[in-house]
User: Fold this.
Amino acid sequence: MDFEAELKKFQPSLDIEQAEDAIYGNNTTDVTDLLQTILLGAQDSGKNKNNTIEWVEES
Amino acid sequence: MNCPRCNAKIAFTRNQCDNCGQDMRMYRRIFSLSNIYYNKGLEQAKVRDLSGAIRSLCQSLEFNKCNINARNLLGLIYFEEGEVVSALSEWVISKHFQAENNDADSYINEVQANPNRLEMYNQTLKKYNAALYSAQHGDEDMAIIQLKKVVNLNPKFIRASQLLALLYMMTGKRDNRIRAKRVLNHISRIDETNTTTLRYLKELSDVHLKGEAASKKVENDNSEKGRKMLPRVESDAYKTITPYKEEKPSVLPFINVIVGVVIGMALMGFLIMPHINARRSSNANSAFKKYSEEKAASDSDASTLRNEKKELEEKLEDLQKENAELKGDTSGTGTTMKESYEAFIAAMQYYSDKKYVDAAESLLKVNKNSLSDDAVKELYRDIKKGTFEEASKSYFEEGRDAYNGQGEYAGNKDYEKAVELLLKSLGFDENNTDAMYFLGRCYQQQSDISKAKKYYNQIVEEHPDSARVSEAQSRLRELGE
Assistant:
């Protein structure tokens, strides 16, 4: 066993005073958020597509 | 179920939100997955597969961050593993998503209700961080000491126990490996599937705690009875065959030994010898101090003994004196009590016979202090009063005859005899100015001017009413005063 490597795996623990940072740092994005973003993106792109002015080649 | 778009409450079976028209089919599937992972996590937590439960619950929350049950359970598992901050974070986030009717509320309150306990948790975390820092900077001994404290304070703190076990293993000592195994066994009962714990335990597979081998054997026997298995083969029965290699003689071990001895001697010289010298010096100081104290005490004793001796000598002297007095000897006059009384009786006899001079002579031999009775003392005073003046006068007259060459000394002036008789006269009456005058005359005749002046001056100064004053003054003028 590589003890030094094992030792490096241990990370300092947050103090109770630092709990606030842990809460704010928590990534609360879930799949529902992603889905909602995707759906909203799809809707926006649909709208944009309708408003796009197609290129007209000049003769 | 809440609509993720408008947050309106809708039935789980509905395909569309009644409020905003959001298609709920996809969301329903996602929520179902979240619940599946939650259920899996719950099952794992029930059989103390805490690491697996954490993974499942995190996945559940990745699908639905608002899964309150999953988040609360995750907090509980963190708390069980000693990760207080992570547990509190999960509960706080849970409360954020659902403020009412949330179990997280009671969990938070329970932790915060006891400030001492909360402080204890905080201290364990700080000590763990300090120990980790020490370990990562090469101070393993300090790290072990601190981690021991941490594990004592919070025996469920898995990470601290794992680090302690790792540090014990790093020392390579057999005792420490046994300790490491004990620690790991303890935390493996809290989280049975923690891969780190299991890995460390595998490293310590050669270490057997007391009673462990026996129980395993029984277990194996039972399992063997239950089902027929192939004969068990010891893990170290087959070893990798390596080509034979003869060991070459090396001088390195000898060099190592010599270096070790040199280092040992250097250590002894730099570390141990000063300590020994300091101890010797300290011992010598304390011995000297003790000797000084003893000497001071003996000096004091000697001084006390000297004082006591002096007191005893004084007491002895007093007692001897008292004894002598009781026996009849008086130290002052050399006259015994008996002799005093005999002389006093003789004086009384002479006094009654009107031989006043003889009576006075006898009375001189009496030691007044040896007369104990007041009546005798009174009698002594009376006889003295009646005889001394007469004796003084008698001796003066005889002395004057010796000076003038008259009477008994007719035609033969004898100044020395005169002085002797006149001094006797003064002895009986110190105010006899006649005797003083003739003493002055005798000394003047003998050319002893200073003594002559002394007696003349005594008459002039101490007895100015005396009839001899004018004569004394005249003689003083003669002598140049």
Chain B is about 70% helix and 0% strand.
